[in-house]
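Batch manifest, entry 17 of 40.
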Amino acid sequence: MCISAVVIWYVTIFLIGFSALPVGLYIFKSLSDYAYPFYRIIGFAFISYIIWIFGILNIMPFGIFSVYFALITLISISLYLLYKKKVVITKEFIRKAVIYEIFFLVIFAILIAYKLYRSDISDIEKFMDFAFLNTILKTEYFPPQDPWLAGYTINYYYFGHLITAVLTKLTEIPVAIAYNLMLVTNYSLFILTIFSVGYNLTKKYIWGVLTALIVSVMSNISYLISIHGEGVNYWWGGSRIIPGTINEFPLCSFLLGDLHAHYLDLPFVVLILISFYLFFVKDDNRNLLKLFIGFILGLMFITNSWDFIIYGFIFAALTFYKNYLKDKNITQVIYDGLVVGVSSILVFLPFYLTFHPASEGFRIVTAEKSLITDFLILFLSQIFVISFYLLYKFIKEKNDYKMFAVIISTTLFLLSFWNSQVTALIFILLPIWFIVCWNDLKRDKIISTKQFINILILITFCIIVFCEYFYLKDIYEIEYQRANTIFKFYYQLWVIFAVIVGYVLYYFSTIKDWIRYPFFVVSGVLLIASSVYLPTMVKDSTNDFSNRVGLDGSHYLETIHLYDYQAIKWINGNIVGQKVIAEMPGESYTYNSRISVFTGNLAPIGWFGHEWGWRNNPNQLNVIKSEIDALFTTDNPDVATTIISKYKIDYIYFGELERDKYYNNDIWVVPELFDKVYSNDGVSIYKT
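Output type: structure tokens
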């Protein structure tokens, strides 16, 4: 089943990409590689959005018919472009497409080989992602039902999970296998597309490869420090460097195996970056491109809303510089902003109208600022490369290498006295970034890749400063107030830094100056130091490849939770539709709520902490929790029937977890009131 599932999945996503080929070629025809690596993403986006918009407007239910309808619609658009717009597929395009497809297959095969040894849907937040996927698969109209709060819809961004569900329906692959195939597909596309960005910026394959490696196999240097006894030593501990925050990076996301929103949005992030490059550097002013940018930004809002803020800001900076600072055309700035802004809002508006943010807006940080040592553990390689590049350009203009040495020495000296917080970087080193980039942008008459990189550097400056002084208020108190803000903003720093660093390395390879030799030596050492995480942590996360488990993420249940496994199989095979199944109220990051997770049915209350985070209503959740607890312990028929009626419970699940918590089952009234429709040695299921 494993090999056939992989083949079916690959053929399916290839055909989706092939179906979107004319669309991608028509939009990106002026790029050096025609943006071939992005065609699958474009196909996923169009098909899934058609299904979603028809479902959320109650026009067409989500099912295999709507999937084929969306696919036929995409093919029709492509045929129109081929025959009416005369999109031409050249031999050069075919040659590059073949190269990219071979590259994709190699990456895909390597990542599949890894997942064969680590596929369990069993820890961190995999339960949440798998619950979302299963409930979407049972959904007819959107938004989907919340699997952990029956009677409510999901109050979180879920478009990436919908794409996974669409591919699962189309391939008819078991969902526990599809989960892992999507993890692999997402990272494969991310690597391939970031390679494409590096190639288009430099026109050299080698720098495309290096750009991809920088963001896909690099980590921070925490593991290297831990070798000497000071840092973290657990394989995902490198994502917890700045106290009270999350410092995840793309490689960590893949190894963790959570099919989370920020991870699923990575291909869209790279797609929007290459679209920005086309708009800015290639001076592509077609309304079609602007509408496409708006479309992708809108999808990013539904996939991972944080990224909409970041990349919406980047587009605003690009169009302001291009149309106002260079051409003094404020009308064009407003026009571009309206086209992209309005189109993106129209794309995500149906989602937003059903979404109720639990956050309370941006606030000023009152917690401790980041230590500069922690920040440099995260981004030492990137900070060095970018700083060296900008300082070199600054000194080159002055033609005084003594000044170069003085600036570096002074900076290091000052940092040694002010080494407690990132504020030191903000007031000492980063202003040099700003000044050099700004002077370059004002001086250059022609828009080029260099200006694109300069603006990205300025954006990273803004992100670093913003995260030190502002945060999005959620349910966390002062100690963890910046947890999600640092997480989501710094995660994008990894992608943007990779594009910048790849270009800077290329730049130094083109200059004829002795300074490039020490630059490459130090950069090489730092990049290698940031890569030692990969081989060690891959071995650690797979227990040294000692146990090949296959791609079925639910297989472990048969060994560890046999009775639940048997009951879940019965539920999936015998209960039609999406029902409310009462099980023990769940605590986050545990095996709790396993029935809703593995069946896609609804629990009256699931992972409590997550629901609190999504809705910020702990009082209501506590009431539900206490009443479901009462259902499992009451000896009063009226109490039981009242609770069942209130939460519209269809089945009551009593397994090992329930038995451990509600151990006194002798007085429980439910077995006397309702028929037992399924049982094994450890589980009883009652139909109400």
